[in-house]
């Protein structure tokens, strides 16, 4: 690659795309990489501010920006994704299904720390729809050393154990059992407005109500109801209410007495601090069933801890205690008058 004056470019081969930007009118490529410049092209090149241009000279030790973008793309592209063709040295990735986006953050950081190259993405651990843009890749210069691209590829793959940096886990059509607790609901003192919220939210991710059991504040009965739903074939159990420290609130004890592994009772998220997450192992069927204890805020707040955890649970993405602890940064919902979640800081 070398620089020549545009007025002397007739017959030269462009080594990068030339873009024309007119504010409010257009931003598009007027000449593509590999275009042979004609005499008629020179005034056009000058009109877009190109008094000098790069022309291609073969160098077996260097990669053009489009070729380097292909290397970066290969580190990212996975099943359930589509990609664009290279344009101006960039390749974009798009979701090809409705699912949960997972990102190997260590590998992504390693690539972006290497210098002269970048991968920009949306946040992981959130749901994506078919057609959503996930990421874009490119190098910064027009050409880059082949050895450098091989080194970054080797380093990234060593971190991911040979897997792509990005993954989309499709949502499972889970059958969800709901245990509605509370004397006030059981005895008909108030209408149950909690369960319909849960049904609507699980439906967003392909889930459906398996069975709803309504009980008074009796921990033994709640324990038995959870185990009954699991025995009948529920893929997930949600307990609504009874999660605070009041003497009548016994749902955490009921979940514990099932023998499930309690991952976290309490979360660094507002609204939703009194949330409980557990996993019950049904060894005879080789199944692991998530059990969620939901505080009352899920019933009335626009967005809560449930909205951060639910997509992961619905995609069979196992949540650890460390994952829960990391929710503290970004775990404060600002409760905006107009909710734009997930296009906000909540859960980021």
UniProtKB/TrEMBL annotation:
The keyword Magnesium applies. Transmembrane segments: none annotated. One of its GO terms (biological process) is Mo-molybdopterin cofactor biosynthetic process. SMART domains: MoCF_biosynth (SM00852). The keyword Metal-binding applies. Keywords: Magnesium, Metal-binding, Molybdenum, Molybdenum cofactor biosynthesis, Transferase. Its EC number is 2.10.1.1. It catalyses: adenylyl-molybdopterin + molybdate = Mo-molybdopterin + AMP + H(+). Pathway: Cofactor biosynthesis; molybdopterin biosynthesis. GO terms for molecular function: metal ion binding; molybdopterin molybdotransferase activity. Its cofactor is Mg(2+). Pfam families: MoCF_biosynth (PF00994). GO terms for cellular component: cytosol. Gene3D superfamilies: MoaB/Mog-like domain (3.40.980.10). InterPro entries: MoaB/Mog-like_dom_sf, MoaB/Mog_dom, MoeA-like. Residues 177-315 form the MoaB/Mog domain. Belongs to the MoeA family. Catalyzes the insertion of molybdate into adenylated molybdopterin with the concomitant release of AMP. This is Molybdopterin molybdenumtransferase.
């Amino acid at each position: 690659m070398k620089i020549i004056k545009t007025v002397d470019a007739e017959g030269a081969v462009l080594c990068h795309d030339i873009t024309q930007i007119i504010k409010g009118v257009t931003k598009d490529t007027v000449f593509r990489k590999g275009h042979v410049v004609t005499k008629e092209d020179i005034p056009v090149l000058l009109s877009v501010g190109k008094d000098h241009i790069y022309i291609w000279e073969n160098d077996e030790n260097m990669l053009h920006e489009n070729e380097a973008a292909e290397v970066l793309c290969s580190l990212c592209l996975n099943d359930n994704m589509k990609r664009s063709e290279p344009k101006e040295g960039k390749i974009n990735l798009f979701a090809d299904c409705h699912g949960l986006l997972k990102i190997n953050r260590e590998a992504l950081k390693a690539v972006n720390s290497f210098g002269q190259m970048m991968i920009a993405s949306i946040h992981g651990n959130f749901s994506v729809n078919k057609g959503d843009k996930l990421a874009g890749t490119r190098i910064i210069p027009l050409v880059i050393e082949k050895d450098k691209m091989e080194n970054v590829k080797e380093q990234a793959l060593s971190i991911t154990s040979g897997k792509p940096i990005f993954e989309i886990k499709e949502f499972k059509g889970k059958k969800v059992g709901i245990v509605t607790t509370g004397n006030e609901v059981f005895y008909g003192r108030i209408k149950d407005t909690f369960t319909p919220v849960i049904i609507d939210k699980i439906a967003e991710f392909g889930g459906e109500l398996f069975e709803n059991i309504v009980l008074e504040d009796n921990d033994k009965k709640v324990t038995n109801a959870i185990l009954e739903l699991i025995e009948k074939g529920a893929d997930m159990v949600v307990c609504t209410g009874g999660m605070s420290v009041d003497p009548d609130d016994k749902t955490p004890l009921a979940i514990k007495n099932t023998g499930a592994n309690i991952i976290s009772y309490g979360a660094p998220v507002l609204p939703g601090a009194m949330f409980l997450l557990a996993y019950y192992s049904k060894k005879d069927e080789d199944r692991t069933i998530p059990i969620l204890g939901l505080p009352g805020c899920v019933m009335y707040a626009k967005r809560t801890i449930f909205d951060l955890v639910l997509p992961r649970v619905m995609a069979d993405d196992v949540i650890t205690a460390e994952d829960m602890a990391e929710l503290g940064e970004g775990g404060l919902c600002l409760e905006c008058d107009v909710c734009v979640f997930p296009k906000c800081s909540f859960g980021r």
